């Protein structure tokens, strides 16, 4: 961590000036955020500042809206000399779907899913780089239904056109169909990305398990909530999924996704997790069968830097920062993540697990 320019300094209130009212606060005069790439910043600006142009429902996801965004002015391409400018009220010729395929769309999610924005910053701070850019945003566009413009900020996640989905409409939230038993077999085989192994590199599962444990995301590796005691109001209980825990052949993984261009690397979506999950009820099933974790992410957890790094990263999203009470409001949440990190580090020591260095 010290090799990164001493970025693990503790931050004081004056390091987070209230007067900076930009939606995305990243600039040379602020503390650097080297874990956010230029592409990340551009997508965050698109999500935070882009004007809604069109919308579409997402099949089987009633509370999620796919919204096309017109890029902010500084991201607009310069018009070619001699090319006619579109007249007032003229629409661009592409359809909503075509514009989404150009990377100009977002998923606007439920207000309760705000933790997904924290998850994006955690992913980058840990050096995992597997989740999609996300911001918190309040919409005021007439294009959107009233409940999306009522003043409560919502998480907005970049819609990645390159993700590979299964053709089965009932199972399109996977690139690779896997049951729990098949997943555990893959872990034992230590697959290197070959076709019989589903194409995913073995080291990817350690990244996913670490990320999901810190966030307590069950709706991926453990959608039936078999590894902890769920509340009666949990969807896994209401939908009677929890009753399947004794029938291993019926336990299916969801949101196991890759990009068509990178089938050996996972993409993490739907990362809202459980910020309030008690430390006495953590889901250790998420790390079952995992024999290695990413060295860099573990080093961040060991360094004691997580609070400083996450605060600096979260400050870049003004709406999230303001709506969650700034540094004072976010510190308890971050300390919950730190505590889970300490529990995970003890698991690594107890099980004598390997640390995998990125090549």
How would you portray this structure in words?
The protein has 359 residues and is α+β, with helices and mostly antiparallel strands. It has one domain. Helices cover 30% and strands 13% of the residues. It is built from ten helices and nine strands. It has helices at residues 38-49, 96-101, 115-125, 180-189, 202-215, 235-238, 295-303, 306-315, 318-323, 326-351, and strands spanning 51-58, 61-70, 105-108, 134-137, 154-158, 257-259, 262-267, 292-294, 354-356. The strands form three sheets. A five-stranded antiparallel sheet has the order 1-2-3-5-4, sandwiched between helices. Strand 1 and strand 2 (61-70) form a beta hairpin. The model is unreliable at 1-6 (pLDDT under 50).
Quick structural overview:
By secondary structure, this protein is an alpha+beta fold. 30% of the residues lie in helices and 13% in strands.
């Amino acid at each position: 961590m010290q090799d990164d320019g001493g970025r693990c300094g503790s931050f004081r209130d004056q390091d987070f000036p209230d007067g900076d009212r930009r939606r995305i606060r990243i600039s040379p005069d602020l503390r650097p955020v080297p874990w956010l790439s230029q592409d990340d910043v551009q997508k965050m600006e698109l999500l935070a500042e882009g004007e809604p142009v069109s919308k579409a429902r997402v099949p089987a996801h009633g509370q999620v809206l796919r919204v096309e965004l017109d890029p902010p002015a500084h991201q607009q391409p310069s018009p070619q000399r001699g090319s006619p400018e579109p007249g007032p009220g003229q629409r661009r010729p592409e359809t909503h779907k075509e514009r989404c395929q150009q990377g100009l769309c977002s998923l606007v999610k439920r207000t309760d899913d705000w933790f997904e924005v924290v998850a994006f910053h955690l992913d980058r701070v840990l050096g995992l780089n597997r989740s999609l850019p996300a911001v918190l945003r309040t919409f005021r566009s007439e294009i959107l239904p009233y409940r999306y413009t009522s003043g409560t900020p919502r998480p907005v996640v970049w819609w990645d056109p390159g993700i590979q989905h299964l053709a089965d409409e009932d199972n399109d939230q996977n690139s690779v169909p896997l049951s729990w038993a098949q997943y555990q077999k893959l872990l034992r085989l230590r697959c290197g990305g070959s076709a019989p192994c589903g194409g995913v590199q073995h080291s990817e599962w350690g990244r996913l398990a670490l990320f999901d444990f810190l966030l307590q995301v069950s709706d991926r590796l453990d959608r039936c909530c078999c590894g902890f005691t769920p509340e009666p109001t949990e969807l896994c209980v209401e939908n009677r999924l929890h009753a399947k825990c004794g029938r291993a052949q019926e336990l299916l993984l969801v949101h196991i996704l890759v990009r068509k261009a990178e089938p050996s690397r996972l993409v993490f979506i739907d990362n809202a997790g459980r910020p309030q999950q008690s430390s006495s009820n953590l889901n250790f099933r998420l790390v079952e069968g995992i024999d290695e974790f990413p060295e860099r992410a573990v080093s961040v957890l060991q360094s004691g830097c997580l609070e400083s790094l996450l605060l600096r990263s979260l400050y870049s999203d003004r709406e999230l920062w303001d709506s969650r009470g700034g540094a004072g409001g976010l510190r308890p949440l971050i300390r919950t993540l730190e505590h889970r990190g300490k529990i995970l580090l003890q698991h690594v020591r107890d099980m004598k697990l390997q640390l995998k260095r990125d090549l």
